[in-house]
Amino acid sequence: MAIIPSPGAARAAGVAFAMSFTLAVTVGLGDLLGAFADAGNSFPAYFDHRPERLRHAAGAYLLAGSGLVFAIFIAQSLALDRGAGPAGRGVSALVASGTFAALLGLAAAALSTVSRASGSERSRVIQASRSRSTSFPSLATWC
Amino acid sequence: MVLAVPAALAGGLAVWLLAGLSARNSTLPRWITTFGRVVGVAQLFAFYSLPMMLLPLWTLIAALGMRSSSAGKGPEPSTTAPARR
């Protein structure tokens, strides 16, 4: 697929990457990036709030999208620089930007999993305690 | 962190290569290409998480600097009329 070189498209992609990546890392997922030292039992209470989970989901989308926009920026810039140097360097830059986009997508999935899984775990515990009290008697009753 | 460091290395490599190619073609100003190489090398220390924030900064500067350099690369318009005989 041929890329039509356009300075405007490269400029728009670069600005979009800078904005989306910065927003995702600071506003969207910043608290998750700094949460490695927190105790495990602090996560379910924190992620039980719906706005927090929505913010993390939006941050994950932004982070994954920023990687794709970065790859577009590199491809457009290389199309503008066509013939400037060895073709191998251009291909290497494309592969590196694609790897960057793929790893950012994986990082977004991993970070949003913390939020989603913690909230689901708390909901599962609450639901299990409710069903235990209303349906079948517990194992202690049988024994 | 496990995924961010390899991502920063890949992004730094892409920036370093793009800065080198842009320096040959003069698509970007010289100081931006030099800054791009510094940003690319700085990603080797991405486990401090601060160098990774240089990636969007360089991309923003390069995107905005590309406009001025490409605008000045067009053919110069002739301002003088051909002389009549």
Description:
The complex is a heterodimer of chains A (143) and B (85). Residues 138-143 of chain A have low confidence and may be disordered. Chain A has 143 residues and is mostly helical. The longest helix of chain A has 48 residues, at 87-134. Helices cover 80% and strands 0% of the residues of chain A. Chain A has helices at 7-28, 30-33, 42-46, 50-80, 87-134, 139-142. Chain A has a domain at 9-16 and 44-132. With 85 residues, chain B is mainly α. Chain B has one domain (4-69). Chain B has helices at 4-25, 30-42, 54-71. The radius of gyration of chain B is 18 Å and the shape is elongated. Mean pLDDT of chain B is 79; it is low at 68-81. Chain A binds chain B through residues 7, 10-15, 17-19, 21-22, 25, 33, 36, 67, 70, 73-74, 77-78, 80-81, 83-85, 89-90, 92-94, 96-97, 99-100, 103-104, 106-107, 110, and chain B through 1, 3-4, 6-7, 10-11, 13-14, 17-18, 20-22, 24-25, 27, 49, 52-53, 55-57, 59-60, 62-64, 66-67, 70.
Task: Note the topology.
The complex is a heterodimer of chains A (143) and B (85).
Chain A: H1 7-28, H2 30-33, H3 42-46, H4 50-80, H5 87-134, H6 139-142
Helix pairs in contact in A: 1-4, 4-5
Chain B: H1 4-25, H2 30-42, H3 54-71
Could you give a quick summary of the protein structure above?
The complex is a heterodimer of chains A (143) and B (85). Helices cover 80% and strands 0% of the residues of chain A.
Which spans of chain B have pLDDT < 50 for at least 5 consecutive residues?
A: 68-81
* Integer count of domains of chain B: 1
Mean pLDDT of chain A: 78
The first-to-last residue Cα distance of chain A is 69 Å
Total number of β-strand segments of chain B? 0
